[in-house]
Known about the structure:
Elements: E1 2-6, H1 16-30, E2 34-38, H2 40-43, E3 65-69, H3 75-84, E4 89-93, H4 96-102, H5 107-115, E5 118-121, E6 138-140, E7 168-173, H6 184-190, E8 198-203, H7 212-221, E9 225-229, H8 233-242, E10 245-248, H9 257-264, E11 269-272, H10 275-281, E12 288-289, H11 294-306, H12 308-321, H13 327-340
Parallel strand pairs: 1-2, 1-3, 3-4, 4-5, 5-6, 7-8, 7-10, 8-9, 10-11, 11-12
Helix pairs in contact: 3-5, 6-11, 9-12
Amino acid sequence: MRIRIHCPVSLEPARGNTVTARRWLRMFQDEGHETFLTTPRIAAGEERGGKGETEDPEAGPPAEVLVALHARRSHGVLRAFAEAHPEASRIVVLTGTDLYGDLPDDPEALDSLDLADRLVVLHDEARRDLPEAFRGKCRTILQSVAIPKSLEPAGPEAFELDGDRPGLLALVASHLREIKDPLLPARALARLPGELPIALRLCGELLEPRLEIPVRRAEAADPRFRWLGPKDRRKILGMTAAADLLILPSRMEGGANVLGEACRLGRPVLATRIPGSLGLLSGDHPGLFPAGDAEALAGLLARCLEDPPFLRELERRSLALAPRFDPKRERAAWTSLLAELR
């Protein structure tokens, strides 16, 4: 099949949706599909990328399938594609912003849902957040995680540790945006006695400059916390493999890749009790806490340090969930979906 993937944001730097779009590009190409990836800038000829990322979307025969990320932001592309190629199929991949921001009221997002032949959501709880009229064409496809065979856990220097490894080394892999609540773990740590041997490291790019002063204040207030800035994916994987614990403090997620990474690496997870976490970890996951609740997170951090069986149970849960994020499973799910459209 000839497949066009549309990502409504620039591919550089690679974040969130762009990582997903590029993974699907490689996956479809490996399966023998003629696949290309467009963004607004690429379509305008202003950007160069990897194989399949610079092709003119109107060159050659039209795509048989359009896969568009984000209902509202890709609405113009979806509408134009539907009018130009009414015989082709349209798949809309719903992001967290779609599910928990734009829907059910935004007219462009709703029109995108109407234009779609199939909707794809990235966690098990998302279907119930859709308007009921659209649930029948919704499919759940979890994002997979490929772990490089040569990956080794990061050493102490990657975490900028002062002295010996602490009793608990916790990692937050999140860009600095309010919706991700990246400083919630630091606020939780501040509620715990200073003598508790916990080190907390935050890795991520400063996407909202107003957060720089709060993050610097948090570093100055507690030497156990440090922001390490942005890291590439391989470094994050190595740090996740070496950490005792991964924390996801987000207020909203459409299907966080970091949870799949932690599970595939067998690392314990603490996460906010939001649909995006419940849909990947399940509602009975023992490491869930209410979004924005620093006190609850502080209690879980202390328990992870002082109750080794609890930390081992979190590790067991991650290992049990790891097969859900196997690339073969994601590939099979997409193959099945595309077969529905033939």
